[in-house]
Amino acid sequence: MKIVVLDGYTANPGDLSWKNLEVLGVLTVYERTQPTETVARAADAEIVLTNKVIVSKEVMAQLPKLKYIGVLATGYNVVDIQEAHERGIIVTNVPAYSTESVAQMVFAHLLTVTNRTEHYAIQNRRGRWTENPDFCYWDFPHMELAGKTFGIVGLGNIGQRVAQIALAFGMKVKALSSKTSLPAGIEKASLEELLATSDVLSLHCPLTENTRHLINADTLRQMKSTAILINTGRGPLIDDQAVAEALADGRLAAFCADVLTEEPPKADNPLLKQPNAFFTPHIAWASKEARIRLLQVATDNVRAFIGGKPVNVV
After folding, report:
1. How distant, in Å, are the alpha carbons of 15, 36, 56, 64, 140 from that of 61?
2. Which of 282, 289, 293, 303 is catalytic?
3. Within the chain, what is the greatest distance between any pair of CA atoms?
4. Which of 234, 251, 291, 293 is the catalytic position?
5. For each of the chain's 314 residues, which pLDDT tens digit applies?
6. Is-catalytic flag, 234?
7. Catalytic annotation present for 85
8. Annotated catalytic residue within 31, 86, 263, 289
9. What is the pTM assigned to this prediction?
């Protein structure tokens, strides 16, 4: 059975092994695949694995041997699921592999804003503390998290883990969730209440037509001017221009993100010019531990499919 990985570099840039997948078939791994290359590279494959390479209706129509698409991620919007179902192609994903890593990144971003440790480390390497007339100095007001309100939109695996960490910091946690009952310590709230009361608002909901631009000019006006907004979910959950304007006008204290609407962002993205906007390049999922889990589950998914009992089917 021929197996093709269309874009393996981000999941495994060379520090991990594909050996467990190699034993399941004839494996070809491409580091990156351009849209014009997808059909040719997957032409004879029965099994295709993709991270961000789009497998559209048009692509599937040109791959008559294709029986299985494994998404090397939790989100599976890169695949036309309806078309796959109609063609009898099994599609799987890798759920919950990055929960700990993404939750950790949320607080890495938050502490960047509240404590500015990297800023001071850079300043001190340049000799500023050595030359300082006092035993200490600070350039930004520092903020304790204890007692502040942490709002969460979406209470799946990551949202719940983020809530646990926020509680450990002594924060009051509120969440917008479809769940009827929430874990201990988490208060159920409407979006309007989260916007009005959150000192920190963190987005962990799926991207749907209802959540696209959930944070926009109108919802930003309902937030505290001292609030910190964090997005490690999906880029289009926020309106880039509206958030940039809120930062520029002082109506939002800080914006932290691991995801943007367009990745990589264009140089003219208005958020990139805002000094109180902090970005990481979509790497919250990418700890070595999380990537090991990702490849293991993806391999187990393929093995289960070959064995006739597919798992993690979407």
Report:
1. 35, 15, 9, 7, 57
2. 282
3. 74
4. 234
5. 999 999 999 999 999 999 999 999 999 999 999 999 999 999 999 999 999 999 999 999 999 999 999 999 999 999 999 999 999 999 999 999 999 999 999 999 999 999 999 999 999 999 999 999 999 999 999 999 999 999 999 999 999 999 999 999 999 999 999 999 999 999 999 999 999 999 999 999 999 999 999 999 999 999 999 999 999 999 999 999 999 999 999 999 999 999 999 999 999 999 999 999 999 999 999 999 999 999 999 999 999 999 999 999 99
6. yes
7. no
8. 263
9. 0.94
